[in-house]
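Researcher: Go.
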Amino acid sequence: MATKTPAATKSNEESFDSAMSRLEQIVEQMESDQLPLEELLTRYEEGVTLVKVCEQKLTAVEKRIEIITRNAAGEPQIEEFEPEKKPVAKPRDDVSLF
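Model: Structure:
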């Protein structure tokens, strides 16, 4: 049975904003061409973990949106979140794991 490393446990407890901030730092480091191969691999693994954390946080927010949607009269109304209707975010040119 695999045990969680302290880094993995820490990553699961991070906020979305701090995870995104760390991802941006990792991308900058990886793009700098200053890291040895082993460090690149370590940063890549950390980045993958952080991406999963962000995806989990976004899924939780989507579920909360379902719960707090209100009808025209202002009364709470549960509606299914429809991912295909959410706005498509423009890809950022300055953020990449590769």
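Model: The helical segments are 6-13, 16-31, 37-68.
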